[in-house]
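4.2 Preliminary Data

To establish feasibility before requesting continued support, the project team ran the inverse folding procedure on a target of 421 residues. The structure was first converted into the token representation described in Section 3, and no sequence information of any kind was made available to the design step. The complete token record follows.
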């Protein structure tokens, strides 16, 4: 069996995969809480808690945590997304219990102290983020595509909501969301599953908490808008995007083939047509994000004012061409690209842990690498045509831009409903 999965009496789910030939373990504590779980008045609280858990626990200070990590020679990090938070680390197999105890203590028993000092750090992060249009534009396209739907919210939050967070509201949110049934423990490497289960029982509460507070799932309303944000920049940063399939939709495998062909590889249409042949952009690519109830298919490019109109025209032409037809040889080439990327990536214990943890937390079928390879190989030209027609129709997409002059963007967005931020 490539992996083992257990549900403990205390409600925790534990999944692991033993990998031969490594001396390390990648461990992740996955929490079913992200920005879409937050009420609007607490926007950014999940990301804020991610910061606070590194500031100390009931037993250890922030310096204690740093010293313990240094003594193990390990790595520890955390991340917050729209649908989950993860605290993850990698360390030698001999340090499993020491690392597990530390990570469990940080996640479920943080001191949540120094809230005002850490708020200033996060506000600086927000300011830095807002000064980086190539990153900020992706939040803007989510807002353009999803509107007032929770998936349209920025993970990092906003200055106004972060300034309003109180110690009581943070403690209350943590106490309702960081509970056993909402936590998945995932590990890959030189790990013993039974030992992992014993540690989960030892360092977490022995009785399950109340039911997890799940966000309401709903389909966002269809939108076809162009949104401009004025900022003095040298480039115009543009994202186009539209709704995609759910994360458990069988369409996701054909979608990955289309995404690779459009802008996910060096030989992709956008990279070749926009950058290599015409020199209209330094950075141009496509990507997808899949959620519980919908998804996002998107394209990013950054170009100078004089190249904006031509770059946008070429991209819309390529989007229309992909929606019409993707030749069999192009499909085969990009399936091979995806297969290679998958196999190379899955040779990392961290990647294996992430696949396991994300699948269990999100109630996805636990697929082995071979399972995924088979599903990619099974994608047909007809599958690609159906998915392209469904999700790559520019008439169902929205677009957003950060740049100096709205008129240049307005000139290339005829047919969109125009909005200014």
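Position-by-position output of the design step:
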């Amino acid at each position: 069996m490539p992996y083992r999965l257990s549900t403990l009496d205390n409600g925790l789910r534990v999944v692991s995969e033993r990998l031969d030939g490594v001396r390390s373990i990648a461990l992740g504590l996955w929490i079913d809480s992200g920005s879409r779980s937050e009420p609007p008045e607490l926007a950014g609280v999940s990301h804020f808690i991610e910061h606070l858990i590194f500031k100390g626990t009931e037993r250890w200070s922030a310096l204690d945590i740093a010293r313990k990590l240094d003594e193990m020679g390990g790595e520890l990090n955390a991340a917050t997304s729209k649908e989950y938070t993860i605290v993850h680390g990698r360390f030698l197999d001999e340090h499993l219990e020491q690392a597990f105890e530390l990570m469990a203590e940080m996640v479920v028993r943080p001191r949540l102290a120094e809230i005002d000092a850490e708020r200033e750090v996060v506000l600086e992060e927000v300011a830095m983020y807002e000064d980086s249009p190539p990153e900020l534009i992706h939040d803007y396209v989510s807002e353009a595509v999803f509107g007032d739907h929770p998936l349209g919210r920025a993970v990092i939050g906003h200055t106004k909501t972060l300034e309003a967070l109180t110690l009581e509201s943070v403690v209350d949110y943590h106490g309702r969301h960081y509970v056993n049934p909402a936590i998945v423990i995932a590990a890959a490497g030189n790990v013993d599953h039974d030992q992992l289960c014993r540690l989960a029982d030892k360092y977490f509460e022995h009785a399950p908490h109340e039911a997890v507070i799940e966000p309401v799932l709903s389909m966002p309303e269809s939108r076809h808008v162009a949104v401009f944000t004025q900022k003095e920049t040298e480039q115009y940063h543009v994202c186009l995007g539209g709704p995609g399939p759910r994360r458990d939709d069988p369409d996701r495998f054909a979608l990955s083939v289309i995404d690779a062909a459009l802008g996910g590889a060096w030989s992709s249409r956008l990279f070749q047509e926009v950058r290599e042949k015409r020199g209209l952009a330094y950075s141009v690519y496509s990507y997808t994000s899949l959620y519980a109830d919908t998804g996002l298919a998107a394209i990013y490019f950054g170009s100078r004012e004089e190249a904006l109109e031509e770059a946008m025209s070429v991209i819309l032409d390529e989007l229309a061409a992909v929606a019409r037809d993707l030749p069999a040889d192009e499909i085969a080439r990009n399936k091979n690209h995806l297969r290679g990327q998958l196999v190379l990536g899955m040779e990392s214990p961290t990647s294996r842990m992430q696949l396991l943890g994300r699948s269990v937390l999100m109630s996805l079928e636990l697929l082995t690498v071979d399972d995924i390879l088979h599903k990619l190989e099974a994608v047909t030209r007809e599958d690609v045509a159906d998915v392209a027609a469904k999700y790559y129709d520019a008439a169902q997409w929205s677009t957003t831009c950060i740049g100096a002059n709205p008129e240049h963007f307005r000139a290339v967005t005829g047919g969109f409903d125009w909005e200014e931020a």
